Amino acid sequence: MTARIGVVTFPGTLDDRDTQRAVRVAGAEAVPLWHRDKDLKQVDAVVLPGGFSYGDYLRAGAISRFSPVMESVIDQAKAGMPVLGICNGFQVLTETHLLPGAMLRNNHLHFICRDQKLRVETNSTAWTADYEPGQEISIPLKNIDGRYVADERTLDMLEAEGRVAFRYLDMNPNGSLRDIAGITNAAGNVVGLMPHPEHAVEPLIGTGRTDGLGFFTSILKNLVGAR
Question: Is the pTM of this model over 0.85?
Fold first, then answer.
C-alpha cells in the first residue's frame, strides 16, 4: 500500500488541487482533508497548501490556525508526523508556533508572481532528502505577505541548528530576513516555505522544470522507509 498524504482545504485555499496532483505524480495517494473535520483519515503526512485562507482577514493564517483540522495536525506534528506548509500553509505553521517567526507584507507592498531561484540549505528533513545541500532549484513564487521575520536570537538559532531549509538566490523578492525562503523545526518533520513546489512537478507546466518534485518524492521515500 502506498503512502497516504493529506491535503487540507480551508475556505480561500487555491492550490489544494495542484498539491493533490503533485502528490499523485510522486506516486503517493492524495487524501483531501476539510478544515472543519478533526479526522485526518489515517494519513501518513499532511500538506497545508497555498491560497488566501479566510481571505487573510486579521493576518494571513491567523484564522485558519483555529480550524478544527489544525488541532489534529498540531498534535500529530508534535508526535512526529511530517507536515509541509506551502505559502499560506507556511503562514499557518508560524501562527500555530510549529515553526518560529512570522510572515509580514512584502517590503515593496506589492503582490509578486515569478519563477524564483532557491538554494537548498539542508536535506536533513522529511521533505528535502532528495535534494543536495547547495543545490539550486527554480520554482514559482506568488505572495503578498511573504516577508519572513524573526528576532535576532531566533534567526541565530535557526542558523546554528541548520534549520534554514531554503534561501532566495539572485534577488530577495519580499525582504525576508537573511534571504530565508523556508525553515524546518528541530525534528525535521515540519517544513514551511513561501515558494510553490507543487507548481513545478511536470515539464509542461509551471517553470517547465520539475525542481519541485523532490519535496514529494522525499516524503514518499521517508514514509516507505519508515514502514
Answer: yes
198 labelled catalytic: yes
Q: How far is residue 194's CA from residue 164's CA, in Å, rounded to a whole number?
A: 13
CATH number of the domain to which 128 belongs: 3.40.50.880
Among the options 87, 95, 121, 199, which is catalytic? 87
Q: Is 110 an annotated catalytic residue?
A: no
Straight-line distance from the first to the last Cα atom of the chain, in angstroms, rounded to the nearest whole number: 11
Contact 64, 94 (CB under 8 A): no
Q: What is the pLDDT of residue 1?
A: 60
Active-site residue flag, 113: no
Q: Which residues of the chain have pLDDT under 50?
A: none
Domain count, the chain: 1
Query: In terms of residue numbers, what domain contains 147?
Result: 4-225
Residue 62: predicted pLDDT: 79
